[in-house]
Structures are given as structure tokens and as C-alpha cells.
């Protein structure tokens, strides 16, 4: 691995960690396409590029979300009562999503991931943020349904749940800082369950050097420490500056990444 590869992995980790801490997104929307591109440069097997990117991103998110959750907890932003109501449904959804992803061709995963990024980018750029003066506690079945959707999306794409969980928590009446912090707490069990799923349900794709199942360990070892550095930075930024401009930049970044993933993966990146 060259010094340039090392620098790119480090930059990916810092950027993803900072976004995770600031917006409660888990970092996967940056890490998955970033790893997909870097893996293509490293000439890893094309049939497993998206699966390796998603699986490795899940493993990396264990470290990212742990750092982000601790930082948000220290700020008093994690609502553990909501966490307890939703986490079982999220875990179930993650396993179901991962089982489906293992039966999809990597090209279809690229298309699904690109389409999802375009959806999220529109939501971010429109800055849709429902606001309520009092906390709204949905019925338990609604919370469970939302949790299952969050987990299923995370399991199939290898990303955190922030794109759905943050708007849901805003609907519940939480301010943005507490919504981001609580969303970050969801991502830790998502990452743990998702990583185990990618290890156990990989359909025998273990012939890739330095990989176990769909986890490519060099990427985990290089990216994860830098996400842990970036996450506390993002958490502090979420309390000290207005995130509006950053959200716009992030939204347009997702547009570019989504179009490239949706429009042909590696060939479009070249």
C-alpha cells in the first residue's frame, strides 16, 4: 500500500468521523462510496466491491459510533429512553437487510446506494426539519416500524441510520443536538449487528487476501482510528457553529457521489 493510499484512507476517516459527530449520520454515506472507489483503485475483485465496501464500513462504524456516542453522552444529548424503545426493532431490520444484500449483485447495490444518496441529498438541501414545541411520543408499534426500517436500510447499504432516525427524532420533538446524539447511539448496535452479519452471511467470499467475509481488515485498521479523531471534532462543531452551510456542502457532495454511483460505479469515477 502506497503513501497516497494511506493518506486517502486517513482523509476519508477524518471526513466521515467529523460528519458523524456533527450530523449524527454514522459516516457510512461517506465511507461506503469512498471505500468503493479506493478498492477499485487497488484492483480488488469487481464482483465484491460494494459488498466489501459496505461490510468494511459497518465494522469501521463500530469505532466511529462508539466515539460519537460517548461524545454526545458527555454533552447530555443521548435520550436513552428512546434508545431502549427502538433498538430491538433496529437490530432485527439490520439482519433482514443484510440477508437481502447478500443475494444482490454488486451492480444493483451500486444503483440502490446511488439512488438513496440522491434522496438524502434532496432532503438535506431542502433542509426539511419538522419542529414541535413539545415532545411527541409515538405509539410503540410506530416506533418499532420506524426502527425496523432504519435497521433494514442500514443492513442492505452498510450505513448508519441517521438519514431516517434524525428526522424521526425531530418529529418526536427533540432539538437538533439531541436528535443527532440519540441517532448516533442507534448507530453503535447497528454497526455491531451489521458487522456480525457481514462476517457470518457472506456466502463464502473469503478467498480475498486480508478479508474475512466482507470485512477488508486493512481498510478497517487505517480508516477507523481517523474516524474516532474526527467524531469529537464534529460533536463540538455541532454546538459551536450553525450547520447550515456545512449541510449545503454535504448535500451537494452527496449529489455528486450519488450520480456517480447511480451512473456506473467505477467507470464513472474514472
In summary, what is this structure?
With 270 residues, the protein is mainly α.
Topology:
Blueprint: H1 3-23, H2 28-41, H3 49-74, H4 80-101, H5 106-126, H6 140-157, H7 162-171, H8 176-200, E1 211-212, E2 215-216, H9 217-240, H10 244-262, H11 266-269
Antiparallel strand pairs: 1-2
Helix pairs in contact: 1-2, 1-8, 1-9, 2-3, 3-8, 3-9, 4-6, 4-8, 5-10, 6-7, 7-8
Descriptive overview:
- The longest helix is centred in the first third of the chain and has 26 residues, at 49-74.
- A hairpin with a 2-residue loop joins strand 1 and strand 2.
- The chain starts with a helix and ends with a helix.
- Helix 3 packs parallel to helix 9 and helix 4 crosses helix 6.
- The chain contains 11 helices and 2 strands; from the N terminus they run H-H-H-H-H-H-H-H-E-E-H-H-H.
- It is an all-alpha fold.
- It has helices at 3-23, 28-41, 49-74, 80-101, 106-126, 140-157, 162-171, 176-200, 217-240, 244-262, 266-269; strands at 211-212, 215-216.
- Residues 265-270 have low confidence and may be disordered.
- The protein is globular.
- A two-stranded antiparallel sheet has the order 1-2.
Shape assignment? globular
Q: State the end-to-end CA separation.
A: 20 Å
Overall mean pLDDT? 78
Number of helical segments? 11
Tags for this entry?
270 residues, disordered C terminus, globular, 11 helices, mainly alpha, two-stranded antiparallel sheet
